[in-house]
Amino acid sequence: MAKTALLQQGLLEFTLNSPQNTDTFGFELANDTKVSLLAPGVVRFEPKDSIPSRAIVLSAGIHGNETAPIECLDKLVSDIFALEVKLEQPLLVILGNPPAMIEAKRELSVNLNRLFIGKHQNYASCYEVERAKQLESLLDNFYKSYQHLPAYHLDLHTAIRSSKHEKFAVYPFTHGKPWQKSSLALLQACGVDCVLFSNEPASTFSYHSSAKYNAVAFTVELGKVHAFGQNDLSKLEQLSTTLQQLLSDSNLSSLGFKPKQAVLFEVSDVVNKHQEDFCFSFGQSQANFTEYQTGYELAKEGSGSVVIGNGPKAIVFPNDKVAIGQRAVLLVKRMSLSDIEQAEKNHRLE
Ligand SMILES: O=C(O)CCC(=O)N[C@@H](CCC(=O)O)C(=O)O
Ligand SMILES: [Zn+2]
């Protein structure tokens, strides 16, 4: 009965019908792939007779209102149910924050994407805190079942503002390990040429997978937030095709990194909000990646201000409404082609 409902409604509708509680159950598809519904919005696929090459996690809606990637994963799951995707790799699909999806909000109580690597322990119990614990545990079970395989995690989002680079990815801080050209190539195949290299640890879902499981993991931004049903999914065709390749092909070496096409930035500053009156000098219409010169007063806070040093630097994810102590904006510096070549010589990129 629950199996029939899941197959007929698809993962998204099934999840939104029962966003906080669900019976867990499992069944097999006609091609013997094992399907397990592990929690609301979380489904694990285990192909039976394949020799897997990687363990893949695909998540969307960690911020509930980021609908385009949620719809994209919902379609992928329905195509797997219909045996239209050749699934050769174990896969965990996560729709992150179903109650916030219903309310068309980014969060109910706290930002779920700041609660990973155990940071939920610092917060009083609420939906997101309990969900972060649950997702950490399900992720841990999944990656531990396949610890002999390389781990992958694409955490799919959309941005609040418009952006000079519509699609871009955040490459989690690597603690000195070189950035991988093969990872940049995978992103380029998804239609994501713009990448920000983080300069410090974070408590995001992609950093969690990268730091704890050495996963090829990214936060991927796929355009601007719209309501359910208002997305032009044709804009995500490259992503969908590449995800299918990731799920089927044992060898991804045909995906080459194209440095001339790449738009790479290093994060230079993570500006946190310390006081309630933190406020930017620019308006809500200012796009991500707008550049400012040295000396520009970016924000005011208390009796002080945030001024651009060593510019030009561009703004990403500016949000003065975040909770105190949280990130209000990233400042990034564009890498030139010769910076990229230098990074290759220094083995920062290999
Ligand atoms: O548009 C915005 O301001 C936020 C979009 C978003 O949710 N971005 C992620 C990025 C996570 C990372 O830095 O890896 C977030 O803020 O959680
Ligand atoms: Zn998000």
TrEMBL record:
Residues 261-334 form the AstE/AspA barrel-sandwich hybrid domain. Its EC number is 3.5.1.96. The keyword Metal-binding applies. GO terms for molecular function: succinylglutamate desuccinylase activity. Keywords: Arginine metabolism, Hydrolase, Metal-binding, Zinc. It comes from the Bacteria. InterPro entries: AspA/AstE_fam, AstE_AspA_cat, Aste_AspA_hybrid_dom, SuccinylGlu_desuccinylase. It is an enzyme of class 3 (hydrolase). Binds 1 zinc ion per subunit. Gene3D superfamilies: Zn peptidases (3.40.630.10). The active site is at E221. Residues 54-245 form the Succinylglutamate desuccinylase/Aspartoacylase catalytic domain. Transforms N(2)-succinylglutamate into succinate and glutamate. Belongs to the AspA/AstE family. Succinylglutamate desuccinylase subfamily. This is Succinylglutamate desuccinylase. The lineage of its organism: Bacteria, Pseudomonadati, Pseudomonadota, Gammaproteobacteria, Alteromonadales. The gene is astE.
